[in-house]
Design brief:
Layout lengths: L3 E2 L2 E4 L13 E4 L3 E2 L10 E9 L27 E11 L9 E7 L3 E4 L1 H5 L3 E4 L16 H13 L7 E4 L5 H12 L3 E6 L2 H9 L4 E4 L5 H8 L2 E5 L4 H10 E8 L10 E3 L3 H22 L6 E5 L4 H10 L5 E5 L4
Parallel strand pairs: 10-11, 10-13, 11-12, 13-14, 14-15, 16-17
Antiparallel strand pairs: 1-4, 2-3, 5-6, 5-8, 5-17, 6-7, 7-9
Helix pairs in contact: 2-3, 2-7, 5-6
């Protein structure tokens, strides 16, 4: 079989503002791959099915000299993000052809994954036993869902009857936190930046949902608080309002620093916490998603060539649900 096109999305230049499709990122069709003969060296050949597009992407688009908690994309090489691929060929002793792999994948139609990527945990074999689309495994049953689940389980110390305030509650992480808080018996206040997302937050159980662009966060918290758990994704004036409205002994999650009112403020990175809860997460969450007990939304865009456009939409906050790029059918 002759080599075939292996389309890729390249990190072309460091942006000074929003990442611009065709400048920051370029869809390249010049690369090819010999699917039948490319060396595997003990690894597997993957066909990419779906890729996750997330807000943290902008933090990976910097020069190597810039310090960041996130790894840096290398200029002139493929972007990478959480994705799901299917194994086309395998030289790995325990991974079979047809298996599905989740983890950090290059933004390319095909890629070879090394044994070291599985040993390190960068990639793992996953099974869908409940009939979910693979796109959900990069959303509610993937990194965003894990971030919410692990962060809440580890740091909320939630008690029935307490009050939680969740920012960006219409997004993939925030919406998951709302539902976890309701499962634990908390009153939930949630904010988002559009009326559409407010309606969605109400539909998944938020007791108080508001558009922070139209309503004063401080006034809502003064009326509905004090708050015991604050899930922060925005900082700034919203954080200031949450500090004023905090109950004694409140827990703030997803931040990096502070002092006052004996508040515990806990930042976390899912990569450092996920292994502790992985088995529990996969045993629990996909079933709840498939049954409808946990709700999720997706915004799926077809075509690897659209990655740059979707990244820009996410950075501008124009997406209305979890952004996923579908690269190929299973």
């Amino acid at each position: 079989m002759a080599p075939v096109q292996n389309g890729r999305v390249l990190f072309n230049s460091v942006p000074t503002g929003y990442p611009i499709p065709g400048e920051t990122t370029i869809y390249d069709t010049l690369s090819t791959i010999d699917i039948e003969n490319v060396p595997l060296d003990g690894g597997v050949l993957l066909k990419t099915l779906v890729l996750s597009i997330d807000p943290y992407f902008r933090g990976m688009m910097h020069s190597p000299e810039t310090k960041s908690y996130a790894s840096t994309n290398t200029l002139k090489t493929s972007l990478s993000s959480h994705g799901v691929g299917v194994v086309l060929r395998s030289a790995h002793p325990t991974i079979q052809v047809g298996a599905h792999v989740y983890g950090f994948l290059p933004h390319a139609e095909y890629s070879v994954a090394s044994p070291a990527q599985f040993t390190s945990g960068a990639l793992e074999v996953i099974k869908d036993e409940v009939g979910l689309p693979w796109s959900v495994y990069v959303g509610a049953a993937g990194m965003p869902g894990k971030s919410a689940y692990c962060g809440w389980k580890e740091h909320s110390r939630a008690k029935k009857g307490e009050v939680a305030f969740v920012t960006t509650g219409g997004g993939p992480v925030g919406s998951f936190v709302i539902q976890l808080a309701k499962f634990d018996g908390l009153k939930v206040i949630a904010s988002a930046g559009s009326d559409e997302k407010v309606a969605f937050m109400k539909s998944i159980g938020a007791d108080v949902a508001f558009n922070y662009k139209k309503t004063s966060t401080a006034e809502v918290l003064e009326k509905e608080g004090p708050i015991d758990v604050y899930w922060d994704n925005v900082g700034g004036e919203t954080l200031d309002a949450a500090l004023v409205a905090a109950n004694i002994g409140a827990r703030f999650i997803n931040l990096m620093s502070v002092v006052g009112k004996s508040i515990t403020i806990q930042g976390f990175v899912i990569g450092r916490l996920g292994a502790k809860y992985d088995a529990e997460f996969y045993a629990t969450i996909p079933k709840k998603l498939a049954s409808g007990e946990l709700k999720y939304t997706e915004e799926i865009t077809e075509g690897l060539e659209k990655v740059g456009d979707v990244i820009l939409r996410v950075q501008k906050g124009e997406n209305t649900a979890k952004a996923v790029v579908k690269v190929a059918d299973n």
